Amino acid sequence: MRLLHTSDWHLGRAFHRVNMLGAQAGFIGHLVATVRERDVDAVVVAGDVYDRAVPPLAAVELFDDALHRLADAGVPTVMISGNHDSARRLGVGAGLIGRAGIHLRTAPSEVGTPVVLQDAHGNVAFYGLPYLEPALVKDEFGTEKAGHEQVLRAAMDRVRADLAARARGTRSVVLAHAFVTGGEASDSERDITVGGVASVPAGVFDGVDYTALGHLHGCQTITDRVRYSGSPLPYSFSEADHRKSMWLVDLGADGSVTAERVDCPLPRRLARLRGTLEELLADPALARHEDAWVEATLTDPVRPAEPMARLSERFPHTLSLVFDPDRAPDDPDVTYARRLAGRSDQQIAEDFVAHVRGAGPDAHERAVLRDAFDAVRADRTVREVAG
């Protein structure tokens, strides 16, 4: 069986104020063309269909168009909700839509109930694990601790139990939206850290033939059987070096897996430039970036006059301007920025406690801080879902 694995469409999202709806429509067209041209048997979409819980009407219309075109192609599609989606909204009408071959899996209670498709070699069971917010689903799965690894392990236990009860030789595919250890993040994914730990080990998904992951925006291979497709379009300049693609996966009769990357069309290249304003305006080697979306980091020790206007004369698609002046290492602004660089909210809060009273928090106080951050994240998720 040949699968096309994609995820993280983020319909309705802009790129630094640039409306991406046209590019997203172009990707949908490319997806459907790939389905037809490469003899795809099933499409799997591993979450974050929309960019927010209540998407704009134009994004909903594009999603509706995508569903109609996939149904017209006659190729089954299995789709889960991600942490940006409202699972309840995305799942409305799932029963009726399923009759057209578009199978939406958005309810945690359904993780052990697969979509079963057939090919010449028998059945393939597709299990959809939507994004599982630990604080909201721990009771459903009966876990003592509200953590990503705990709820995903419980969900996979249900998958393996169902698979064990099926006919011998049934192959299996899991769709999941999670941060798996070994994956490389970018700046455009929303933080899903709970209890100080965001990632789960790839071994959680042992026992199935292929795991189609969503959440991280870079296409990457965790193991031969566990892969991220990444987002089909860039949503931050941290993705400037990404090769945007989908996975074309061949699932053999014996459950073996081979995979090929299928490139996605990009509306414009990304470039991250760094230097003084005069260097960026004069360097002939930068001519190749004049048609790219540009993020310029200026290192002038004194902020120059009208930098955006002057940059835009040479780089008309400059979208982001960052100031990082070259300064002495002991400059207060430099040392403060370096202290904060790469530190989590938890670490910054602990540093603040140490600064105020002269000693850092003890184990109990660290747990209180961690619980407070988790509660804020859970509250934000509940409000977005209720939307």
What are the salient characteristics of this protein?
single chain, 387 residues, alpha/beta, Purple Acid Phosphatase, chain A, domain 2, six-stranded mixed beta sheet, 11 helices, globular
The general outline is: globular
The share of residues in helices is 25-40%
Global mean pLDDT: 91
Runs with pLDDT <50, length 5+? none
CATH class descriptor name of the largest domain = Alpha Beta
Description:
By secondary structure, the chain is of the alpha/beta class. It folds into three domains: 2-263, Purple Acid Phosphatase, chain A, domain 2, CATH 3.60.21; 270-323; 332-386, no CATH class. The protein contains eleven helices and 19 strands. The protein has helices at residues 21-37, 57-73, 87-90, 94-98, 134-141, 148-164, 277-282, 307-314, 332-340, 345-357, 363-386; strands spanning 2-6, 14-15, 18-19, 42-46, 77-80, 102-105, 115-119, 122-129, 171-177, 179-180, 199-200, 210-214, 220-223, 226-228, 245-251, 257-263, 270-275, 293-298, 318-323. The chain has a six-stranded mixed β-sheet. It has a six-stranded mixed β-sheet with strand order 7-8-9-12-14-13, covered by helices on one side. A three-stranded parallel β-sheet has the order 17-18-19. The model has no long low-confidence stretch (mean pLDDT 91).
